[in-house]
Amino acid sequence: MQAPAVDQIEVTVFGPGFGECIVVHLGASKWLIVDSCIDSASSQPAALNHLTKIGVDPAQVVMVIATHWHDDHIRGMARQLRACVNARFCTSSALTRSEFVATIVQYNSRHGIVAGSGATEMCEVLEILRSRAGATSPVRASPARHVLTIPAAESGHGSEAKIITLSPSDKQFDKFLASLSTIAPVPLTAKRRMADQDPNDVSVATLLAIGDQGILLGADLEENGDEELGWSAVVKLAQRPKADIFKVPHHGSKNAHCDAVWQEMLGPNPIAIIAPWSRNQGLPTKADVARLGSKTHSGFITSVKGGSINRARPYAVTKQIRETVGRIRSSEIATGFVSVRNGGKRNSGMWCVSRSDNAAHASEWA
């Protein structure tokens, strides 16, 4: 891959089966990174590995967003932020509150948290921000907040570019703070890992509004029908423009699906990208992919881990496998990606998709 031109918008979603992150070229060599995961080939944050391959200095990253603190979205975040020396850091205000910080400090000092957990990663991120010259506080995500604006004159493509956070809602924020007492370490109990919160009450969904182009990044935000929580709360914000690119939330799972999002926040037949989850029973399921196919013909999955591309083997090969090894188990595979790039200033609405060999169109998912 080559770096995009100064007037091109590019969105690249990485997904190795455990973890995901997104790298966006906003124009004029200004970059956004959302979340972090580890590239299986280099053991480095996938975003940094990608920028290095295309010859981009991480100092050109203007913002890093941590949508929430689950391991699959934040592994390597501290290394990533340390390299992005000019980037503002944005996350839910809940994760910068003294109550949350005090809870993870308790784990680090008294409870021997397992190395690499999201809570420890967040603690290191906050320390990096404090240690920087002219240290600034994290940018706090909230509904309909414009966390970064690039004027049209500085964008490279002649259009204003805005990063707008859409969640968490006030009710989600309050639920998270109330839950902290249930995850605080208990004295004299066995050491254990700090539990993830479920549902994803403080996950930060983001809209990129670039001229008349919209890109909706769904993070892991879920939906339960409550108008003050999840996607129901986001849809009420009525942010525009409608998006032509959609990073599908929570690995395409049913609990993150909201019909109103497709009807009111997305254009017709959007390019929809799923980063899969290969643990437990795996996501997306066949039913999840079928649901995606009913909404768009342009669905993609970043990696085939957790499933397989539906390519039939010759009968003789299948018979040989059955009689010798019985069946083939999938092994850990290289980090996959799906990248979407527009045609620049003259063809801003024309999007071209490229992908790694181990990524797949949704119709190939089995």
Element layout with pairings:
Elements: E1 10-15, E2 21-27, E3 30-34, H1 46-53, E4 61-66, H2 71-74, H3 77-83, E5 88-92, H4 98-111, H5 118-131, E6 139-141, E7 145-150, E8 161-165, H6 170-183, E9 206-210, E10 213-217, H7 230-235, E11 243-247, H8 259-264, E12 266-274, H9 286-295, E13 299-301, H10 315-324, E14 336-342, E15 351-355, E16 360-361
Parallel strand pairs: 3-4, 4-5, 5-6, 10-11, 11-12, 12-13
Antiparallel strand pairs: 1-2, 1-14, 2-3, 7-8, 8-9, 9-10, 13-16, 14-15
Helix pairs in contact: 3-5
What's the CATH C level?
A: Alpha Beta
> In the residues, how many domains can be counted?
1
Number of H/I helices? 10
Runs with pLDDT <50, length 5+?
111-116, 193-197, 306-311
* Named CATH architecture: 4-Layer Sandwich
Query: Got a strand count?
Result: 16
Spatial order of the strands in the main sheet? 6-5-4-3-2-1-14-15
CATH topology: Metallo-beta-lactamase, Chain A
Q: Radius of gyration, Cα only, in angstroms?
A: 20 Å
The SSE string, one letter per element, is: EEEHEHHEHHEEEHEEHEHEHEHEEE
Largest sheet: 8 strands, mixed
Structural class: alpha/beta
In round numbers, the mean pLDDT is 85
First-residue to last-residue Cα separation: 28 Å
